[in-house]
Amino acid sequence: MSTWGLVVEQNLGYGRKGRMWSIGVMDHVEGTREEALEALRLRAERFEPVHPANPKSRKLYREADGFLLVVEGVWQPFHCRFSVAEQLYDSTVPEPAEEAAEAEVRDGPTAPEPVPAPAEPGPPPAWDAQVPEVPSWLGRDDLS
């Protein structure tokens, strides 16, 4: 089963020079590409873009790889692009179980690590537990 990122691209900032095109991942979907596109469509219909602040009208278009939302503002139109992208890699995910199994076969079985007993909660901290007895600024010559 594939993991799909629901991607939105929109304008952020104000003015001609301050405006920039920004990308963000709204959510992830497990399943087929068609299921991800359907989830993206629902998100695109409800999406509230940063610009314009007071929209006059909204139009949602289907493209080959996603959707295009055109929002008419008071002065000019703004748009957002929505697409699905298959996630191939994520550096924040821990080592998969398959790689751990291969390492076990290669290096031999490892003994399970002992589970530490839960610590006793102890008494609650005093109301001033985080306040130092002597302030850090006391005795400094560089302060006037």
Describe what you observe in this structure.
- The chain is an alpha+beta fold and 144 residues long.
- Helix content is 20%, strand content 32%.
- The protein has three helices and five strands; from the N terminus they run βαβαβββα.
- It has a five-stranded antiparallel β-sheet with strand order 2-1-5-4-3, covered by helices on one side.
- β3 and β4 form a beta hairpin.
- It is flat and about 60 Å long.
- The N and C termini lie far apart (65 Å).
Main features:
five-stranded antiparallel sheet, alpha+beta, 32% strand, 144 residues, 5 strands, 3 helices
Q: Rough shape?
A: flat
| Series of H and E elements | EHEHEEEH
Give me the secondary-structure category: alpha+beta
| Major pleated sheet | 5 strands, antiparallel
The neighbouring-strand order within the major sheet is 2-1-5-4-3
Quick recap:
By secondary structure, this protein is of the alpha+beta class. It has helices at 15-18, 33-46, 97-107; strands at residues 2-12, 20-31, 57-62, 66-72, 77-86.
Topology (SSEs and partners):
Elements: E1 2-12, H1 15-18, E2 20-31, H2 33-46, E3 57-62, E4 66-72, E5 77-86, H3 97-107
